[in-house]
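Work Package 4 report. The design task specified in the project plan requires that, given a folded chain encoded as structure tokens, an amino acid be chosen for each position. We show below one input record used in the internal validation round.
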């Protein structure tokens, strides 16, 4: 039987400062709006028929917009964020775990990928999403690479649940059925095993009552002392 997930509450833990000054709510909102338009552009381009003249006109307009955005100053991520995870309180049941608006795949302000709202439920990182035309591989089904990308990103949220920093060593995806386009999907992930610095995370995807895929991800924990912190923080 498919798992159930209740709607997330209003409570939310504070976002991390990914880039210097990036916690300005007005900037986050503006960047999220641009990212949403870019993602919508991809679906409109792939999912609709267009004349050659229109496509060429849009390409010219986009080149101008890209030129305006590319004129800004370069940005660099805040390195202290990794160490900060070891020092914070762990999230509580019902907390929303999407703390980085510009998280490369699932952030609301990320121009590529799919924004995910991830919630801690009964030890699982849970999210619901719907894939669109730009994700389609076989007719009516998602390309497997997008499913794998969701697993790669979602299993990383489990590290946030545990207050750990780790890198992916291996990701294995098993496709049990076609992943439908245009239908709500439930993805969830949790810690299965932990041995010293190795963490094995399991995950699954449901389309209604049907499990369409499952995955395991092996992470290797970064010791706290390598991040300039006291040794042995949150070890197994």
């Amino acid at each position: 039987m498919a798992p159930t997930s209740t709607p997330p509450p209003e409570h939310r833990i504070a976002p991390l400062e990914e880039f210097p000054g990036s916690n300005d709510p007005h900037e986050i909102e503006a960047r999220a709006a641009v990212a949403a338009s870019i993602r919508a552009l991809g679906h409109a381009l792939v999912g609709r028929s267009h004349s050659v003249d229109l496509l060429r006109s849009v390409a010219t307009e986009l080149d101008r917009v890209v030129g305006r955005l590319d004129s800004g100053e370069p940005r660099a991520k805040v390195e202290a964020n990794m160490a900060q995870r070891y020092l914070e309180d762990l999230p509580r049941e019902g907390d929303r775990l999407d703390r980085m608006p510009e998280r490369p795949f699932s952030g609301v302000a990320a121009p590529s990928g799919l924004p995910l709202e991830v919630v801690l439920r009964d030890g699982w990182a849970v999210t619901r999403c719907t894939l669109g035309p730009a994700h389609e591989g076989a007719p009516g089904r998602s390309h497997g690479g997008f499913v794998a990308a969701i697993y790669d990103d979602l299993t990383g949220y489990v590290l946030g649940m545990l207050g750990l920093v780790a890198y992916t060593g291996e990701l294995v995806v098993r496709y049990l059925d076609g992943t439908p386009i245009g239908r709500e999907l439930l993805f969830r992930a949790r810690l299965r095993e932990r041995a010293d610095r190795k963490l094995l995370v399991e995950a699954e995807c449901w389309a209604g009552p049907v499990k369409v895929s499952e995955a395991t991800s092996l992470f290797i924990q970064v010791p706290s002392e390598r991040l300039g912190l006291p040794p042995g923080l949150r070890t197994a």
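The beta strands are 119-121, 124-130, 166-175, 184-195, 198-207, 210-221. Validation will be extended to a larger panel in the next phase.
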